[in-house]
Amino acid sequence: xxxxxxxxxxHAVTDGELASVIAGGARTESxxxxxxxxxxxxxxxxxxxxxxxxxxxMSSSDVSRTALAAS
Length: 71
Hints:
2 strands
């Protein structure tokens, strides 16, 4: 089995847990924090959380643009 990569040490949130929270609909740092606690401790993980949220937002907008272009 793979080794867990921690995104948030303060609340022991792994990369996989963060991915699940985002897949479940979290789109802001606050929503992530409410869902799993990540980003609510010392704050050193906020850059990683924001990077992940930005990637999701960009891929979502790419899908939206593709759908609009097809219509």
